[in-house]
Design a protein that fits this description.
Blueprint lengths: L20 H8 L3 E5 L2 E4 L1 H21 L2 E2 L5 E3 H7 L10 E4 L5 E4 L4 H11 L8 E10 L14 E11 L2 H21 L4 E5 L9 E8 L5 E6 L17 H11 L4 E3 L5 H5 L6 E16 L3 H4 L2 E3 L5 E3 L1 E7 L1 H11 L1 E2 L2 E2 L10 E5 L5 H16 L4 E4 L5 H11 L3 E5 L1 H5 L2 E6 L5 E5 H7 L6
Helix pairs in contact: 1-9, 2-5, 2-9, 5-6
Amino acid sequence: MRLSRYFLPILRDTPKEAEIVSHRLMLRAGMIRQQSAGIYSWLPLGLRVLNKISAVVREEQNRSGAVEILMPTIQSADLWRESGRYDAYGKEMLRIKDRHERDMLYGPTNEEMVTEIVRAYVKSYKDLPLNLYHIQWKFRDEVRPRFGVMRGREFLMKDAYSFDLDKEAARHTYNRMFTAYLRTFARLGLKAIPMRADTGPIGGDLSHEFIVLASTGESEVFCHKDYLDFETPPADTDFDSVEGLKGIVDKWTSLYAATEEMHDKPAFDALPAEKQVSARGIEVGHIFYFGTKYSEPMGASVTGPDGQQVLLHGGSYGIGPSRLVAALIEAGHDEAGIVWPEEIAPFDVAVLNLKAGDAETDGASERLYRHLLSKGYDALYDDTDARPGGKFATADLIGVPWQIIVGPKGLAEGKVEIKRRAGGERELVSLEAALDRFKGKAA
């Protein structure tokens, strides 16, 4: 992408309304624009990151055996009346009427709708297990939206819904999602700790929140320090192995870890002082097992092996890609701007032409840019007539992991400069060496 043709509305001043780092940097980097309280437009740079995060989430859901669908944002109130949640959910649900005066709502979650889909088509135990997910916009009318997309009213959510024949099978599905979540967050460069959590309006008796420790977290969390050194399950994890997944979950739930609502102070105080971690945390994922909470009132059952009707056991599993954008910035930034993990950075490499219009720098920059594109990199070419300092500041602010700096002084010696954003290391190399350095993006 040529910066001269891109839409990147950089703000040089820090917005006064932004209370936390991620909100400030997302506004300054031209990633989002607020349209009303807790509702944002995602501008090109922000959307690139959001899509890359969603791609990682999708890959790990597919790896675990979940199947993608897409459900509508507007739901009929009748479904929610069937489950008994329409009046119970509270003011966070945006209730509306269509032109025929039918009660509708902007979905805050999709347990009812997916249960209706499954009861219509799934009739036999032979069709199970089934786990359906989608990545879709949700709306919850927060009483006090704040912190930008960290706590907005409209947000992007990956929500999965599982259906099993009995509690034992449902627990295996729960373990699948638990493991998939550990892998997802690790791929995004985050250390997420699963913590016992309240089930809230979703319901059920088994729930874990996946928490990233950060000073700007919404609530206090408590855990054993050893979790910070646990290794993530590998890519070749067998998601069909009941015992294998149970072993992973048992390990990751073997030590103390709880959100504020579930905190057991005596149990936590019994830990050695050097192993106690009390910190603020950001919730980046939440999983639930809720048994027959929805299948019973909505009549979702299948014919079991003995020919009898059996109510389906369900679970739901949420990850917020839009919230993850903010969480990643909270975890990765410095005074100059954002420091993205390479897998989800908006661009892989930026070519900075320090003297646009000069034949030598233009030629070398074009060659580098075209080479990067041909090798599969998401490349940003700053071909604008901005001053060098402004180009450096922009590339650092938006967090491009690698910068190739092309200036007339360096080219006079046959050199360009390569800078790594994360550590700030710089290296002068020949143009040919720079081309060779970026010889293909890893799959």
